[in-house]
Amino acid sequence: MENSEGVKIESTVVTEEPLISALDIALFVVIITVAYFWYFKRDKQSSSSEKKPYTIQPSSLSSIEQTSNSSFIKKLKSTGRSLVVFYGSQTGTAEEFAGRIAKEGARYKMKGMVADPEECDMADLVEMKEIQKSLAIFCIATYGEGDPTDNAMDFYEWLQNGDADLEGLNYAVFGLGNKTYEHYNEIAIYIDQRLEELGATRVHEIGLGDDDANIEDDFVSWKEKLWESVCSHYGIEETGEESNIRQYKLVDCSEVLPERIFSGEISRLKSYENQRFPFDVKNPYLSKIAVNRELHKSGDRSCMHIEFDIDGSKMRYDTGDHVAVYPKNSSELVDKIGELLNADLDAVFSLLNTDEESSKKHPFPCPCTYRTALTYYLDITSNPRTHIMKELIEYASDPKDQEKLKLMASSTPEGKKEFHEWILRDNRNIVHILEDLPSVKPDLDHLCELLPRLQCRYYSISSSPKVYPKSIHITAVLVNYTTPTNRVNKGVATNLLAQLIPTNDELPQPTIPIYIRRSQFRLPPKSQTPIIMIGPGTGLAPFRGFIQERDYARKEGREIGEMVLYFGCRKKDEDFIYENELQEYVANGTLTKLHLAFSRDQPEKKYVTHLLEQNADELWNIIGEKSGHLYVCGDARSMAKDVQSIIVKVVMEKGQMTNSQALNYVKKMEQQKRYSADVWS
Hints:
- The chain is 35% helix and 18% strand.
- Helix 9 packs antiparallel against helix 10 (399-409) and helix 19 (616-625) packs across helix 20.
């Protein structure tokens, strides 16, 4: 036999053992105990799930940000609050708007809190009526092709599938969308209507923010009228008190051990040193840059072909998916802020929520240095919103600077005009504002509280996992432009990527955090189905993956359908990206037809839309007679809309339909996933 350390022990005494030894009895007791515990624990969990069918678990946050209680109702009651503002946010704007509303509630004697629906049991909405003069506000973004944001998905599905009695719930909804997309504010509109259907009372009409125009103006205008409706509905009056109350307090962390200080990680401390699968928005994979090469042949513009190494990561992607890239701000801009504010950027600090009941303890991973916060966590290159102008007023020592900030923070026509011209049209970021209003010297910790989070950037994957299972390819144009104030603004992600050039194998390769975001932009299930792909410029990216996948199927001996590609750029000898690859696919028969439009190679500009109009018979043959699929990728503002108009026209003429019938036909194509768009504005 062996002892507990695995050392063999010899016995010299031989005795007659009983049929059932003490060891046998002990093992039997252990087995019975484990079986009893397993059976009743499982039964308890099953009963619990039957009684409570809708419970949203918090997403993978750091332990300091997790809350042990998902009941927002209990928090409202225990802290004497009557206002809760939920947000469905993909880029942080809806969350920011929610915070501003909750903060302003104090002016109307409505103590508010911000809540993430993903971390709440939204079935508790039925209990809102138990709180006197209570109000639930929803700031909801519509994402992708009319989809809810990730953190609002479960709530959206609960509304769709449930039939809760929401009588007594008072609510209002503000939607964040973009009119260049077909499904403009679709999710917010649905939630607004569905809440009313379930018996809730709409206190104020829905607000629809358009990010293609001026969503800040839309929000401020709606918010002002919201409070008028709230006062009327509840019979209350504005107190007149300003709500410039800090949400976070500064904590000096100079004594914190270095190993406990965040250095750019998204959520988990030291996550880049100790990578753990699965990888997602809060736990990205630190990928090596395997390839970074220029695609343009000449000219003053740049387009990069970049390959991320995912070998050994267990990450899997599908053709048509997106990859998210986490950028960082340039050290030049970060240092400039430190210089302008005469601040020690290497001081270690933390911002702690003054609301002890909030599940969000910090605005970003803390503790960290100011340099880390400004480099990895805060957006210092976008146009600041009006509430930041308002918060900066107290830090202006020059009356002229003070008056300018007051004007831009106001909701008067003159104020809106000044904000639009000086901030939006002139494209000023926070660094430019501090430069041009030299007397404005905010406390750096307060500025860190005010600035929005730096968001990851999404790129269409331009490779197929069948051909490249160990790498992800993207096609990205370097973003640089001169503003009306003669400053050069640089795209945060693309300018960082441009610097990440792989070296020889002996040196460490450059890395960048990424994760894969699933998409509905998919090839037809059957490889024989014919397809038309329309992708000018970098809109070609996902179609490169499509073509690779069909080429792989062809080489395996499978039958593939027609593949027709429409591609356009400025000049054939300048920015015809992947030219050799495409010509090879034409030569081997994978790509049936390649229609090319070079807009500046002749006196009259020529675009892919002109080619589509010329090839109406081919279009109808594939989408009408052969029930093929049509894909569009690229600019949403003009190209994608023009393409859809042409398709409707072709369906009318070649399908012999009325305009109404043609529109319904195209709508049905979309519902059947035969007309798909991957577009951006």
